[in-house]
Write a structure and sequence with these properties.
Layout: H1 2-13, H2 29-53, E1 58-60, E2 63-65, H3 67-86, H4 91-107, H5 122-140, H6 149-154, H7 157-160
Antiparallel strand pairs: 1-2
Helix pairs in contact: 2-3, 2-4, 3-4, 3-5, 4-5
Length: 168
């Protein structure tokens, strides 16, 4: 009785080991490089668009709501999370973050004519700091072990729905 309970609990609590993918399933160097270039270009484009749009506000009465900043930050999170979930490695999301943060840094300094796209103030400070924090968290987030379809199909029902009660 006790040994069957112990084996069921051990089987339910033991986590599957994450194996390294074989060389046949690993992405090639060309696909990794193209993912990195795609990430850099998309990150730079979004950094430019977000920098221009983050200053937009919607006036409700006498209060100006930073709608552009909120939408730009949601877009940063969506872009980086999408790259993280789409690709198997961190290289494309790292390059997307480099392109994004690089454009923000480029537009925060004064141009030759003296204009600045990210002026000093709370909205500009949030736009320069939060994308860096989001990028750091998304790039550093650990990879979750994935279950293949074969593993999910071969999981016995008693292991998928285990009760932790001793049998009477």
């Amino acid at each position: 009785m006790l040994s069957s309970y112990t084996s069921r609990v051990t089987a339910a609590t033991s986590a599957p080991t994450a194996e390294r993918p074989s060389t046949a399933t690993r992405p090639s160097t060309a696909s990794r490089a193209s993912g990195a270039i795609l990430g850099l270009v998309v990150g730079a484009i979004y950094g430019t668009v977000g920098t221009v749009a983050h200053q937009n506000t919607a006036a409700i009465g006498d209060v100006g709501l930073p709608v552009g900043l909120v939408l730009a930050l949601i877009g940063v999170l969506g872009l980086l999370l999408g790259f993280r979930l789409l690709f198997d490695n961190r290289v494309p999301v790292l390059f997307a973050a480099i392109g994004l943060v690089g454009m923000i840094a480029l537009f925060s300094v004064a141009s030759a004519g003296g204009s600045v796209l990210i002026p000093q103030g709370l909205i500009g400070l949030v736009w320069t700091v939060v994308p860096v924090l989001v990028a750091t968290i998304v790039v550093a987030w650990p990879r979750m072990p994935s279950r293949t379809t074969a593993e999910a199909a071969n999981t016995p029902p008693e292991r998928a729905n285990v009760r932790h009660e001793p049998e009477a």
